[in-house]
Every structure is written in structure tokens, then in C-alpha cells.
Design a protein that fits this description.
- The protein is mostly helical.
- Among the domains are: about 160 residues, HUPs (Rossmann fold, 3-Layer(aba) Sandwich), CATH 3.40.50.620; about 130 residues, Arc Repressor Mutant, subunit A (Orthogonal Bundle).
- About 45% of the residues lie in helices and about 10% in strands.
- The protein contains 19 helices and 11 strands.
- A 3-stranded antiparallel beta sheet has the order 3-4-7. The protein has a two-stranded parallel ribbon with strand order 1-2.
- Helix 7 links the parallel strand 8 and strand 9.
- The chain is globular.
- It starts with 6 loop residues before the first strand and ends with a helix.
- The chain binds glutamic acid.
């Protein structure tokens, strides 16, 4: 099949909680397809096998569906250019690597990780940017054949022109010129045979007939490598559009350390997808004051991809709150409001799990809000008083939060067992009893020292809400430690 017409895609890597930045780029592509009567595709880019998990893949699909975005082709719905998950396409990339090797556009590199580290170290010491030095570029063909035959591990790297620059026009940045000598001899196929992002991305965009590549500005510097691959294969390159990153109000890159960035956090707190899409969509259109509240169809109508700003999309949470409030008040009928509130409480089985955990702990229903209400709250309003009954000193509490927070980030599958295992590991690292470690966490997560079992509650709340609650508690504790309370 030869796909035609405007074809765009979102290509998430399932390596973490689905990010609002992914929803922002997905929305752009979705609106672009709608505007041009084109096709919007979802492709899973899981070439980083160590960080990609099925849990995150499922979550990214669910999160984008929650946003109200739908794709015509993807791993869940199939389509003419499948499979739509790169790990399922592994065998498809090899012939392309062979083609590049045969044509002399790529070479085998036998450098060990230790040698590469040494090389980078020397470059750093000399104040030069780290870049492959080309040691294997000049190996004789017989030597390469012999080393491959002897089973020595190797990667495939692309050759890069030594002079001139890569000039291209970006849909947002206009004319861009990047000198070739700043471009690294990118690894295309790793030692385990898996392609890297760059290789798989270009081959798949070509095979899937992608006409416009719209993605985050962090990929702008990769365009020369991609353009070179299109040239090496003699394929037509797509139009590139690099959207400015979403930023915190202080203009720094939106990161989970400053603001919650997971889509699931916003859904758990009771933001409406209509409001989130409305908020993100306003970055792509010119609008007069008073006309901000727009449905997806209205966004598509006003969508203006030719007038995008490089300034950065500020994630102004107050504006999102304002829009969300308007959507709740003006966008939903009373019936819809009832139904949506219930659906929100039931999301991820939250209400059911909360009731299950509560049944053996109450004497009358009226105790439920106090006991389990924390599972639905958006803000616990923690103060130092909440920690008054905990035996540990503020400094000890701080040490506990400092260890637990990064430890929980490393959990690949978020569930009761993995949370418990990680908190036990934390207690071991800190040389403390588990109950000493979990006491302040109880308060951080539930706001009270008498509540539902901690590990189960953390599993129900989900990692993005737990992350935010621990962050807020850690701030309270740090202030206590700082003020000597
Ligand atoms: N997998 C890349 C990401 O997660 C996609 C970048 C692109 O769209 O080319 O951002």
C-alpha cells in the first residue's frame, strides 16, 4: 500500500508517565491532520529496551485517548503500515543498515564503551564537545569482515560530511543552517541489533508515508542526521516543524521537579480533557480576549500552523484552572456534570479500591470521607503540625524523603509489591526500621496518621499524584528542618 495525502504522527517513547508535552505535540498533529483532511498516526518508539515498559505504553495510549485524541493507525487499531511498535519492526531495519554499509554511507565501529568513555573524557578535558573521533572509519574491509566473523561486538555508525553545513527550512524556525562538523557520527544500529531512535524514526516515517514531522524543539539539532539519512536512501524528506517546548512560568523547561507534568496527574485531580485540550490548543491559534473557550472542532477551525511562536508555551496553571472552571460551569449540563464527576471518582478503580480498603475499618459510612477522602483530594494542605506526632526529627524526616523520592522514581511497574519492595530497600539504605520510614509517608500521602494501608493507597493514587504529595511534604519537612522546629 502506498499511503497518500497529509500524514502526521505522534511517536511517543513509553519510558515514563505520559507527559503533558506529549499531549501538546499530539494535539498539534491531530489538529494538523484535521485541518488538511489528513491522517493522524500513533507509533510507539520503544528502541530503548531498558527504559520502555508495557505499563508505560498502555498508559500513553490511555492518556491520549483520555485527552480525546484518536488516531487512524496505531498499535491498538492496526493499519496499512504496521506494525506500529518499533520493537515489532526490529527485523525491518537490518536491510537498510546493510544498504548504507554497502553504499559506503555507514561503517562498523568496534570501539568498546570503555574506549568511548576515555575518548569523551579526553575531549572534555580539552574543552571540546564529545563526538566520535572516527577511529573505525578507516578500517580495511578485510579487517572488518574478519572481526565480525570472529564474533566481535560492533555497532553501525553513519558517515557525516566533513565540510559545509546542513541547510533546511523548518516550519517554525524558518531557515536553519547547522555545520556538519558539529554533527556526530551517529550510531544507527546498536550492538544488540536494535536500531537507535534516529535510524528507526527516519525509516518508519518514510515507510509510513509521513509528510510532516511536527515534534518538540529538542529534536531540531537532530534534523541534519535525519536529512542525511533521507539523502543516503534517496527518499523524499518530510516537512519539519519543531514546536517550542512547554515551559514553567519562570521560562525553564517544564519538568516534573517544578510542576506536575503527567497527564494522569491532571486527570486524577479532576481536570476535564476538554479544558486541557482547550488550554494546549490556544498555543496554536491567534485569539481575541473573551474567545478562549473552544471545543476541539473550534480549535481545528482556528488552527494556524503558519503562525507559530518560538517563544515557548508557558504552562500557566492558573489559566488552566480558569479554563477548567469555565468548562465545569459552562461546558457541562447538570446531567453531564453528575456523570463526569462519578466517572472521575471511579477512574482507575479509585473509588472501588478505596471502599475495599475501608470496609474492615469503619463502623458507619459517615466515617468514609475522613478515612478515604484523601484518595480524591486535589490538595492535602499539609502543615508542620501534621508531623507533630511522628517520632523522627525534622532532619531525619528530610533524610527519609530525600531517599524515598528518587527511589520510587526508579520503579518500573507501579504496584503494591514494587512500592513495598522499594520502601523496604529505602529503610535498609537508611538503616531504619520500615515503620519509621513509612510513618511520615503515611502523612505525606494521606494527610493523616490514621488512614488506609500505605502501599495500597500509593498504588491507587498512582505515581504522579504520589510524586506531587511527597514533593509537597518534603517542602514542609525541609522548612521545619531549616527553621529548627
Ligand atoms: N520518540 C520521540 C519522542 O519521544 C519522537 C520524536 C519525534 O517525533 O521524532 O519524543
Amino acid at each position: 500500500m502506498n499511503p497518500s495525502g497529509v500524514r502526521v504522527r505522534i511517536a511517543p517513547s513509553p519510558t515514563g508517565e505520559p507527559h503533558v508535552g506529549t499531549a501538546y505535540i499530539a494535539l498539534f498533529n491531530y489538529l494538523f491532520a484535521k485541518k488538511h483532511g489528513g491522517t493522524f498516526i500513533l507509533r510507539i518508539e520503544d528502541t530503548d529496551a531498558t527504559r520502555s515498559t508495557p505499563e508505560f505504553e498502555e498508559k500513553v495510549l490511555d492518556a491520549l485517548k483520555w485527552c480525546g485524541l484518536t488516531w487512524a493507525e496505531g498499535p491498538d487499531v492496526g493499519g496499512p503500515c504496521g506494525p506500529y511498535r518499533q520493537s515489532d519492526r526490529k527485523a525491518m531495519y537490518q536491510p537498510y543498515a546493510e544498504e548504507l554499509l554497502d553504499k559506503g554511507h555507514a561503517f562498523r565501529c568496534f570501539c568498546t564503551p570503555a574506549r568511548l568513555e576515555e575518548m569523551r573524557e579526553a575531549q572534555r578535558a580539552a574543552g571540546k564537545p564529545p563526538k566520535y573521533d572516527g577511529l573505525c572509519l578507516t578500517l580495511a574491509a578485510e579487517e572488518v569482515t574478519a572481526r565480525v566473523a570472529s564474533g566481535e561486538a560492533s555497532v553501525v555508525r553513519m558517515k557525516i560530511p566533513t565540510e559545509g553545513s546542513c541547510d533546511f527550512t523548518d516550519g517554525v524556525y524558518g531557515d536553519v543552517s547547522i555545520p556538519w562538523d558539529s554533527v556526530d557520527m551517529q550510531v544507527l544500529i546498536k550492538a544488540d541489533g536494535m536500531p537507535t531512535y534516529h535510524m528507526a524514526n527516519v525509516i518508519d516515517d518514510h515507510l509510513m508515508g509521513i509528510t510532516h514531522v511536527a515534534r518538540g524543539e529538542e529534536w531540531l539539532a537532530s534534523v541534519p542526521k535525519h536529512i542525511l539519512l533521507y539523502r543516503y536512501f534517496d527518499w523524499q524528506q518530510p516537512v519539519f516543524m519543531h514546536l517550542s517546548l512547554m515551559r514553567n512560568a519562570d521560562k525553564s523547561k517544564l519538568s516534573k521537579r517544578k510542576n506536575p507534568t503527567s497527564i494522569s496527574y491532571y486527570s486524577a485531580l479532576g481536570y476535564l480533557p476538554e479544558a486541557l485540550m482547550n488550554f494546549l490548543g490556544l498555543f496554536f491559534i491567534q485569539i481575541a480576549e473573551g474567545e478562549e473557550m473552544l471545543t476541539m472542532d473550534q480549535l481545528a477551525e482556528k488552527f494556524d500552523p503558519d503562525n507559530l511562536s518560538k517563544a515557548g508555551a508557558i504552562f500557566d496553571i492558573q489559566k488552566l484552572d480558569w479554563l477548567n472552571g469555565r468548562w465545569i460551569r459552562e461546558g457541562l449540563s447538570e446531567e453531564e456534570f453528575f456523570a463526569r464527576t462519578l466517572a472521575w471518582a471511579m477512574e482507575n478503580d479509585r473509588l472501588k479500591q478505596g471502599l475495599k480498603l475501608s470496609q474492615s475499618r469503619i463502623t458507619k459510612f459517615g466515617e468514609l470521607p475522613d478515612l478515604a477522602g484523601f484518595l480524591l483530594k486535589s490538595d492535602l494542605g499539609l502543615t508542620p503540625d501534621a508531623f507533630a506526632k511522628v517520632k523522627s526529627s525534622p532532619e531525619e524526616l528530610k533524610a527519609i524523603f530525600d531517599d524515598v523520592q528518587p527511589g520510587l522514581e526508579k520503579i518500573l511497574e507501579w504496584n503494591v509489591a514494587s512500592i513495598e519492595a522499594e520502601l523496604r530497600a529505602s529503610a535498609d539504605r537508611l538503616g531504619k526500621k520500615l515503620k519509621v520510614v513509612v510513618a511520615p509517608l503515611f502523612i505525606a500521602v494521606s494527610g493523616s496518621s490514621r488512614s488506609l494501608p500505605l502501599f495500597d493507597s500509593m498504588a491507587v493514587l498512582g505515581r504522579s499524584v504520589v510524586r506531587q504529595r511527597l514533593k509537597m511534604a518534603a517542602q514542609v519537612v525541609a522548612a521545619m528542618a531549616g527553621s529548627g522546629k
